[in-house]
Amino acid sequence: MTEPLTLPAAAGDRRRTARTPRERGSRAPLGRRLRGWAATTWFLLPALLLFFLFVLIPIAVALYTSLFKWGGFGRPEDFVGLGNYRKLAADPVFRGDLWRGLLIVVLSLVVQLPIALGTAVLLNQRMRGRAVYRAVFFAPYILSEVIAGVLFGIIFLPGSGLADELVGGLPLVGGLAGKWFSDPGTALPTLFAVMTWKYFGFHMMIYLAGLQGVPAEILEAAAIDGAGPWRRFRSVTLPLLAPTLRISVFLSVIGSIQLFDLVWVTTTGGPTNSTETMAVTMFQFGFKRYQMGYASAISVAMFLISMVFSLLYQRYALRRDLEGAVTSAGGAR
Amino acid sequence: MGIPHPSRRSFLTAVSAGAVALTAAPLLAACGDGGSGSDGKVTIEWMDIATTEPSKTIYPKIAKAYEAAHPNVKIKLTNLENEAFKSKMTALTASGKLPDIFVTWGGGVLKQQIDAGLVKDLTSPASGLLNTITPVSQKPYQFDGKTYAVPYDMGMVGFWYNKRHFAKAGIKAPPKTWAEFLDDVRKLKAAGITPIALGGKDKWPGMYYWAYLAMRVGGMPAMEQAAKTNDFTAPAFAGAGQHLKELVDLQPFQPGFQNAGFDAPGGEAASVGAGKAAMELMGQWAPAVEKDASGKGIGDDEGWFPFPAVDGGQGALTDVFGGGNGHALGKDAPKEAVDFLAFMLNAENEHELVSSGAFMPVVKGAENALDANRKQVADALGTSTGFQLYLDQAFPPAVGQQVNDSVAALIGGKATPEQVAQQVTKAAKSQ
Fold first, then answer.
1. Is residue A73 within 8 angstroms of chain B, CB to CB?
2. B282, B306 in Cβ contact below 8 A?
3. Cα–Cα distance, B82 to B86 (Å, whole number)
4. Domain architecture of chain B: domains with CATH
5. Which of A54, A215, B76, B287 lies at a C-alpha separation of 20 to 30 Å from A35?
6. Least CA distance to A151: which residue of chain B?
7. Given CB atoms, is A160 within the 8 Å cutoff of chain B?
8. CB neighbours (10 Å) of residue A328?
């Protein structure tokens, strides 16, 4: 080859004077602009193709099948309109799912995240074995959900499990022996304890990363001004950590709404639906009872709940953090 | 230089075409299914549930022996745990392609797969083989006069009990009526023995109680009527729930039974096998699983009695509830698959399967390999006056699952007998 490949930006550079990118874009010759678009399209195509194939089309198909009474074989023919959604609204199990989902979200926010934040603050200090602690607390997150589920299934095995051995004979908690996952009253708290164990390390890691971004100078300045440790945390660290916190809350809520694997492996949603989540109910109806239409309606409901939450949260809470990325249509400012 | 350099656009086109080709190649290759290859080689995909002994060892052995005798055939055996197998089959059924050979329990689930056109009709291709097999064991796989699977096991549900525990509690003979049964449960509790082990997490073991009680209260006509009209509000079903509640109120199950699996560690079979519970209501495979799950089993202490009669009920003690295991073939299965099923049930292999303790005979005249307890089961089956297939197999999946869920709720104290009957009726009516 006699000359190097030229990219659109480089080609534009040659004739660039002191114009802003926008002016250049609007005044470039039509042919050149079209060619730029063609290249962009080619670069985007693989990603767009996958996005359509595995995200948008399945969503559309689920929306479509949710309007039918359909067993999953052949074409859906028995059109029921919004019948599946009416059935859903009246289903005590699904209503229970909503309530339990809310409970898990709230518990995650008031128990799991504060634990993660506390651990992160502790592990952000200079101390012996800091790296070891970080690795140990993060380790459960790396474990697959199924392995964690099987593990805790064995720990909470009634009668001979480790948990029973530990609490047996103790005051207050002794009554838990033989219950844990086996009693409708204790199954959800037990599940939540496992969830906390599994996921708090992940949030701790996010917070640790956020804490690295808090400038030591400001903390030092606050200390010189006479601020005690709590004051420094409350008035310097926490506000500067706010973007990280907002992201972590977002991930936690979305994760709770979609909770499935851990529940499926430990309790399959039982005893008597006491740990059932929307995703578990969807699986039960779709792949155990072959009521694909109804299961699709559940998945659409899950999708809507997640989407409404995401949009509202991004609009109101993440606005400052995402400025320019989502809330205001890219670089159109 | 004389060679024109590629333009940007053709460069991109080439790259993307290459990428598409690269992604598509393995997909296309994967489309070639397990049928006959050009060189006469045949691969048979066999999906089974033999994750526990003895079949875990015997199946691969039989497959190897067949391969040795037929060098052109390769048998690819995949074993999944029971519940995982059901999930996998569900996904495969939805995808429209089933393995060449797979385990089936017949009834509504198999019917659904047949209706979807995924199962081979074996009536004529396997007629020779089917003629050697007892008619009762073929029942679950027959629809409209056609047979869709070759059974390899047939049995029924009954109580497997620990004779030593019964003796210790002062129980002279196994109970003949539900009242006697409840009395024996009280005696066992008084003697400090957990009367019954139950795998509540799996739900189907609990369904057995409700199903048997409904059969004993309403008799076979009530069951047939319900299957036909999808109406479970007849007195037989509410009555079954009430009798089951009488049992549940005695708190007869092991601690934590609501999250215990059937064959999981510390579950139902393991409890009985380890001597921690006096009995379980289970099918003919119980002793084998007890042994496998607990590591030892209770050997000669094991006894069997049929589900007791209910006073004033319409059903006979000789009406049996059960089912079998069969192998069905995917619609594209090679003809060698039928031949392999015949090989699996030849005199030598059938004798090994039956005498291993895990299976009941299906081939005429193979009963001689049975031990005393399973001889009892075989006799009860042979002299049965009525036969009811497992409810979660006999009914369409949505109804079967509703029965399991509702009965589990009843046993967990979260539903009344009437609610169970209503919920099941509602699920059946909306089919």
1. yes
2. no
3. 6
4. 42-156+322-388 (3.40.190.10), 158-321+390-429 (3.40.190.10)
5. A54
6. B265
7. yes
8. 12
| Chain A nearest CA to B345, separation (Å) | 31
A5 contacts B258? CB cut-off 8 A: no
- A73, B112: Cβ pair inside 8 Å? yes
Q: Which residues of B touch A (CB under 8 A)?
A: 1, 5, 8-9, 11-13, 16, 19, 87, 90-91, 93-94, 112, 115-116, 200-201, 203, 254-260, 264-266, 276, 396-398, 401-402, 408-409, 412, 414-415
As a whole number of angstroms, the distance between CA B187 and CA B196 comes to: 12
Distance of residue A99 Cα from the nearest chain B Cα, in angstroms: 18
User: Under a CB-based contact definition with an 8 Å cutoff, are residues A122 and A233 in contact?
Assistant: no
Please state the φ and ψ torsions of residue B193, each to the nearest 5 degrees. -110, 135
Does A289 contact chain B (CB < 8 Å)? yes
> C-alpha B386: how far from its chain's center?
19
Query: What domains can be seen in chain A, in order of their start residue?
Result: 91-146+191-290 (1.10.3720.10)
Nearest-by-Cβ selection for A39 from B8, B116, B203: B8
Reported as a single tens digit per residue, the pLDDT across A35-79 is: 888 888 899 999 999 999 999 999 999 999 999 998 877 778 889
What is the SS3 assignment for B158?
strand
Kindly give the confidence (pLDDT) of every residue in chain A, 333 residues in length, as a single tens digit, with 9 standing for 90 and above: 344 444 444 444 444 444 444 544 456 678 888 888 888 889 999 999 999 999 999 999 999 999 999 887 777 888 999 999 999 999 999 999 999 999 999 999 999 999 999 999 999 988 888 899 999 999 999 999 999 999 999 999 887 788 888 887 777 777 787 788 989 999 999 999 999 999 999 999 999 999 998 999 999 999 999 999 999 999 999 999 999 999 999 999 999 998 999 999 999 998 989 999 999 999 999 888 888 999 999 999 999 999 999 999 988 888 877 665 544 444 444
Structure tokens at B209: 């109680």
Q: Which of B184, B327, B200 is nearest to B266 (CA)?
A: B200
A3 to chain B, any CB pair closer than 8 A? The answer is: yes
ipTM of this complex:
0.77
